[in-house]
């Protein structure tokens, strides 16, 4: 995508809408598709890729702030729950078990682009469902 100007241009247009409608205090909330109003103030583990993508696009300050939010949840629970209520600070029970991208691989990507080793402890985290063991 980053090598194709047309795809990058399309993504940047979507990113403006994402930043405008879903971003609150460096969290990205679920919003109503037609109105852009918040439908669920939750973080889901499937969103763990976002700081890595922000880093690839050069949005390093935003990537670090978003990562700090996600990492605070990791520290609270020893891993990422499938769903986390941002206002209440606890997990949300939902049916199903979505496959999720690893926060650890995206941390390595962010570290590569920022040369920041501030989250090295994450790489030594116990193995669990996210790593398949």
Give keywords.
133 residues; alpha+beta; 3-stranded antiparallel β-sheet; two-stranded antiparallel ribbon; 41% helix; 13% strand; disordered C terminus
Q: Any chance you could write out the topology, listing elements then pairs?
A:
Elements: H1 5-21, E1 23-24, E2 27-28, E3 30-31, E4 38-40, E5 42-44, H2 50-56, H3 60-77, E6 83-85, E7 90-91, H4 103-114
Antiparallel strand pairs: 1-2, 3-4, 5-6, 6-7
Helix pairs in contact: 2-3, 2-4, 3-4
Instruction: Give the SSE string.
Output: HEEEEEHHEEH
The end-to-end distance, rounded to whole angstroms, is 31 Å
Output the strand order for the largest sheet: 5-6-7
In terms of DSSP E residues, the strand content is 5-15%
Q: Detail the poorly predicted runs.
A: 123-133
Shape: globular
Helical fraction:
40-55%
How many beta strands in the DSSP annotation? 7
Arithmetic mean pLDDT = 81
Structural class: alpha+beta
CA-atom Rg in angstroms: 15 Å
Count of alpha/pi helices: 4
Largest sheet report:
3 strands, antiparallel
Keywords: Glycoprotein
Protein name: ER degradation-enhancing alpha-mannosidase-like protein 2
Region (Disordered): 95-133
GO molecular function, one term: mannosyl-oligosaccharide 1,2-alpha-mannosidase activity
Task: Explain what this protein looks like in three dimensions.
One of its GO terms (cellular component) is membrane. One of its GO terms (biological process) is carbohydrate metabolic process. InterPro entries: 6hp_glycosidase-like_sf, EDEM1/2/3, Seven-hairpin_glycosidases. There is one protein chain. With 133 residues, this protein is α+β, with helices and mostly antiparallel strands. It has a domain at 5-89. The chain is 41% helix and 13% strand. The protein has four helices and seven strands. The strands form three sheets. It has a three-stranded antiparallel sheet, with no helix packed on it. A two-stranded antiparallel ribbon has the order 1-2. It has a two-stranded antiparallel sheet with strand order 3-4. A hairpin with a 2-residue loop joins strand 1 and strand 2 (27-28). Helix 2 packs parallel to helix 4 (103-114) and helix 3 runs antiparallel to helix 4. It is globular, with a radius of gyration of 15 Å. Residues 123-133 have low confidence and may be disordered.
